[in-house]
Design a protein that fits this description.
With 293 residues, this protein is of the alpha/beta class. Helix content is 43%, strand content 24%. The strands form three sheets. A six-stranded mixed beta sheet has the order 9-8-7-12-10-11, with helices on both faces. Helix 3 (68-81) crosses helix 4, helix 6 packs antiparallel against helix 7 and helix 10 (216-227) runs parallel beside helix 12. The protein starts with a strand and ends with a strand.
């Protein structure tokens, strides 16, 4: 990494620990409060959610954005190591995390404030992760920070994010989608049609359906294949990221299908969905981000 520019992001980017350590990224955790499942068995929130469903425990986990102080501490640490820093957050349309980062920057004082640049990814999970990786690429190209910020803001709408949920109840319970849309999704699943959600302009939307596909990895692969046909014909390289709801088997299957189909592809990472999106996506969900490299 260029010693002049460092990175900060929130935990919703779903980056692997290996990437975080390699590029010296400061990660600010998003908070979750769900007392009903705290003492349930499970190594992570998604496993506890499965157990809660088995036991008939109703309820919904509440997440809250990091405080301005959480970001302020991360900024202070990174400014000791780097001349300037870029902070990339989950979409401001779903979380107040971006605003917390802006407030933290304003608390730094004039000299330090000018060294911190905050970017709204207008995405989430592995979609936000792609923007962080793009920032790494640009930093390694020795571009100055103003150029990097401009390129990232231009690149943001070129990142695509798709997801399939095994159970829509968690997203519905959060109020992120209406009961009407949730009931439509359930009816579709019953007749073998899988709804695909995505993020458009920072908001979760229904973006398509797939008929007669048995598993979620094949469904997402079919969607990706259709959308990247032009890139494949032109021999252009693209980058993929995958996040899963404690469903590593389907995530690995998706990775293998992608690598077998495309020569010019980089599957940058596979990782567990962080709590901030786990409480919305639920166990066994599969998420895919992609962009032209």
């Amino acid at each position: 990494m260029n010693p002049k520019i460092g990175l900060v992001n929130d935990s919703a980017a779903d980056l692997t620990q290996e990437i975080i350590e390699k590029y010296q990224i400061a990660v600010v955790p998003v908070k979750m409060d769900w007392p009903d499942i705290e003492n349930l068995p499970g190594e992570n929130t998604l496993q506890k959610m499965r157990e809660a469903k088995k036991r008939g425990i109703e309820g919904f986990g509440k997440t809250s954005q990091p405080s301005p102080k959480d970001f302020l501490d991360a900024f202070q640490r990174q400014l000791e190591r780097f001349e300037k820093i870029i902070c990339i957050t989950i979409t401001s349309k779903l979380s107040g995390t971006y605003n917390s980062a802006l407030q933290a920057r304003n608390l730094l004082g004039t000299e330090k404030e000018a060294r911190v640049f905050v970017i709204d990814s207008l995405n989430a999970s592995c979609g936000t992760g792609l923007l962080v990786l793009k920032a790494v690429d640009l930093i390694n190209e020795d571009k100055n920070i103003e150029e990097i910020v401009k390129e990232l803001e231009k690149f943001t709408p070129q990142i695509y994010f798709y997801g399939i949920l095994e159970d829509i109840k968690w997203l519905e319970a959060s109020g992120r989608i209406s009961s009407t849309l949730a009931n439509w999704a359930r009816k579709m699943q019953k007749i073998g049609i899988r709804p695909i959600i995505g993020i458009k302009k920072g908001l979760i939307k229904a973006i398509g359906i797939r008929v007669g596909v048995k598993d979620i990895s094949s469904t997402l692969f079919a969607k990706l294949k259709t959308k990247t046909e032009r890139l494949k014909k032109q021999g252009k390289k693209f980058r993929v990221t995958i996040a899963h709801g404690d469903n590593l088997e389907e995530a690995q299957k998706l990775k293998e299908m992608i690598e077998n189909e495309f020569k010019e592809v980089e599957v940058a990472f596979i990782n567990l969905i962080d709590d901030v999106l786990a409480v919305l996506a639920g166990p066994d969900a599969l998420l895919l981000g992609w962009c032209e490299a």
